[in-house]
């Protein structure tokens, strides 16, 4: 990654931006909206089925032994982030709309990324087997913990109604396909591995479908009309502050527990990142019946900021003497 291109949005982020623009100009209506929702639900199930089929059990077993590191990463992901979101609310919510800050709180409750956390850990010469284990486990735990955390955090902030039956919906729509993917892994795992570059487009296509459906519904209900430009600028600042504090928190945790450098790198990139691939489908389920465009907009901005910042950090770690 060159010095100049690392500051630019990646191609997928540009596709997401283009999808938001299309949904803003040509949102789905009526029968088109119903068809989009059906196709999106099928795509989400396929997405998590493939995640289950691709998950390498051997790498998970190899990394499971480092339980202190994993517990620290999970604590950063599912405890530190929600506490930061609640603690910063008096300071940061005035910069955005209440709906956007609900999206910030939802972001704080999400699991960590898988692919990018592992990729940055590898680039920075961290503990890659532990990164594979923690990131994969975080994604799976998020299916259970995220709806529970959203219920507690969002209800505590009195921002929006959330039903705890979202756990059951997520288990049906996300966990069941994931488990089926794991069960079918002995027969299709090799094929999935051979076609991983092709299947990347299934992942990205599923997310783009969810983004289009979510923003179509939100635009129809007045998302851009009710979201002033200063609130969008405030959201960028809010995401930047949240990421900076999470990075500092992970650095502090690594020092407190006296992890070696390779493990501190894994903690930094595993504990400070939030999953776009899991977050957008989860928003569609957890906030069913509501306009979720404002819920996922903070996540999309945070995703791009975390990629740019972590690319710089990984490059700095990679330059250290061997």
TrEMBL record:
Transmembrane regions: 12-32, 38-55, 67-88, 100-120, 132-158, 170-193, 235-254, 275-295
GO cellular component: plasma membrane
Superkingdom of origin: Bacteria
Entry keyword set: Membrane, Transmembrane, Transmembrane helix
InterPro entries, sorted: Na+/solute_symporter_sf (IPR038770), Put_Na-Bile_cotransptr (IPR016833)
Keyword Ligase assigned: no
Protein name: Bile acid:sodium symporter
Organism: Bordetella genomosp. 7
